[in-house]
Design a protein that fits this description.
Layout lengths: L11 E2 L1 H7 L5 E5 L3 H6 L1 E2 L3 E2 L19 H11 L6 E5 L5 H12 L5 E4 L2 H7 L4 E2 L21 E2 L1 H7 L5 E4 L3 H5 L2 E3 L12 E2 L17 H9 L8 E5 L5 H12 L4 E5 L2 H5 L14 E3 L3
Helix pairs in contact: 4-9
Length: about 290
């Protein structure tokens, strides 16, 4: 069995490194794709999770972060141990994976990595696939007692931040940002006042390898904002998934110190008529979330 000390200390893991550690029982691999895709074929030994598994359904809108107790119970059922290293992959350029990373970071669990390029990179290296769903023995998984919500911001805090010395970045598509497109789950189209737009996918080779672009290329994208790495940055998207990816990129890869992801994002913000919005277009509705 390969020792875990061989793992890179960084937040990303490459396919070739994962292959060496795939059979290590201290590695828990999570396939963060929809159930149907998982059943068709996944990396051997991977456990399947999807957005609904890590969501608090008590809100009148979807996508909110699950509680600490919910995550603990879920991981216990999956057989994940407190000391395990969790490696997450998806097929959307680490976008879905980053949401789970973000939740775990907020609950002060740091032993989590994203597979660079995800499922796409695995298949392109002829990595073996499996259709067997592993059976896991229930564990006693516990998150740290103290939480660390440094990457989290609520609508109440965000509302109070409008017009102040913060940079608010909308990581959705251009059509969503302008208000031309209204995705399922939101009540109004548009953006949070004062937002600037940078599509989350600009940091990856979205139409190719699904891997992150070279660090220097990503730096150039965000350097155009003329913000310091100590400035306060608030990110949002439709439901906090794409913006979780940008949170990962800015904080883990580029070293920005004060990066917060708005949990409810546009789905929550648009739900409340008393919260201000900006809108440039006649809106078209997109049914698929």
């Amino acid at each position: 069995m390969t020792e875990l000390s061989d793992l890179n200390d960084g937040p990303l893991i490459e396919v070739n490194t994962l292959i060496k550690h795939l059979d290590n029982p201290q590695i828990k691999l999570i396939d963060f794709r929809e159930r149907e895709d998982y059943r068709k074929g996944h990396i051997s030994g991977a456990i399947n999770l999807w957005r609904s598994d890590i969501e608090d359904t008590s809100f009148p809108y979807g996508g909110m972060m699950a509680s600490k107790e919910h995550i603990e119970s879920l991981f216990q059922k999956l057989g994940i141990e407190t000391e395990d290293t969790i490696i997450v992959y998806d097929d959307r350029g680490m976008c879905e994976s980053a949401r789970l990373w973000w939740i775990l970071k907020n609950y002060n669990f740091n032993n989590v990595k994203l597979l660079n390029g995800g499922f796409t990179a695995w298949v392109e290296t002829d990595g073996r696939l499996d259709t067997f769903t592993p059976i896991k023995k229930r564990s006693k998984f516990k998150l740290p007692v103290n939480t660390n919500m440094t990457h989290y911001i609520s609508k109440e805090t965000l509302s109070k931040s409008l017009g102040k010395n913060v940079t608010i970045i909308d990581t959705r598509s251009e059509d969503e940002f302008s208000g031309k497109l209204l995705k399922n789950g939101a009540r109004r189209a548009g953006r949070i006042p004062g937002s600037i737009h940078i599509d989350w996918a600009n940091s990856i080779d979205y139409h190719g390898t699904k891997k992150l672009k070279p660090k220097n290329d990503i730096e150039l994208i965000y350097n155009k904002l003329n913000i310091k790495k100590t400035d306060s940055i608030i990110l949002y998207c439709h439901s906090g998934v794409r913006s979780a990816h940008t949170t990962f990129v800015l904080s883990e890869l580029l070293g920005y110190k004060n990066v917060m992801n708005y949990d409810g994002s546009w789905t929550e913000w648009s739900h409340f008529d008393d919260l201000p919005i900006e809108n440039d277009h006649i809106t078209k509705t997109k049914n698929k979330n």
